[in-house]
């Protein structure tokens, strides 16, 4: 995902296209709060440190490769433009071939808010169309609480969200998020989670 000659330009947030179907809206709310704390006198510096990596599709439309939560938060906060860095230019490809390449390079995550894989047509055309996945919010909170380490694996938090999705009912998250997080901290250390990126479980062979 490293570009040989990265280009740095600014684009309107409304022109950015997602490469996933859902986000954790609690995570978006946290990003919004972080922006409010920075925007008074450090707005330019903050945005400059958060370049949005994109893939160029048909007619050089920018498709977000990472930082979907931040982009949605900034959009909701009324920010008009962000700086992007172009990772790859696939603008010459037809739509089906474009999404085939995106899928094979791990540059898209076509799973809905229930964790079910969908066709690329289900990916919303803009950031406002992103759906809420409570498990993704829980996975983000779990990482910040030390449940697992930050990892460069693409969509690593969605892998954790999928693991948690299989462990308990999502209604518990909405009823009592703190209790769900406490339970997740226990689940995160179990050996059955050792395949996940950033796993920080017990090293003992008896664990």
Automatic annotation (TrEMBL):
Sections of the chain in a coiled coil: none
Pfam families per record: ParBc_2 (PF08857)
CDD domains to which the protein is assigned, alphabetical: ParB_N_Srx_like
Residue spans crossing the bilayer: none
Protein name as it appears in the record: Putative ParB-like nuclease
């Amino acid at each position: 995902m490293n570009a040989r000659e990265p280009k740095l330009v600014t684009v309107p947030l409304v022109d950015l296209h997602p490469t996933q179907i859902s986000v954790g809206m609690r995570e978006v709310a946290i990003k919004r709060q972080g922006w409010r704390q920075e925007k008074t006198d450090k707005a330019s510096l903050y945005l400059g440190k958060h370049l949005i990596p994109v893939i160029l599709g048909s007619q050089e439309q920018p498709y977000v490769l990472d930082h979907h939560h931040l982009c949605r938060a900034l959009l909701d906060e009324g920010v008009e433009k962000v700086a992007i860095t172009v990772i790859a230019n696939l603008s010459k490809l037809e739509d089906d071939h474009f999404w085939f390449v995106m899928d094979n390079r791990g540059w898209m995550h076509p799973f809905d808010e229930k964790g079910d894989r969908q066709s690329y047509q289900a990916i919303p055309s803009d950031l406002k169309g992103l759906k809420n996945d409570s498990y993704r919010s829980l996975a983000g909170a779990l990482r910040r609480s030390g449940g697992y380490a930050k990892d460069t694996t693409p969509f690593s938090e969605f892998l954790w969200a999928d693991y948690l999705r299989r462990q308990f009912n999502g209604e518990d998250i909405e009823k009592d998020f703190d209790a769900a997080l406490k339970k997740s901290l226990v689940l995160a250390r179990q050996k059955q989670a050792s395949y996940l990126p950033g796993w920080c479980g017990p090293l003992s062979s008896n664990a």
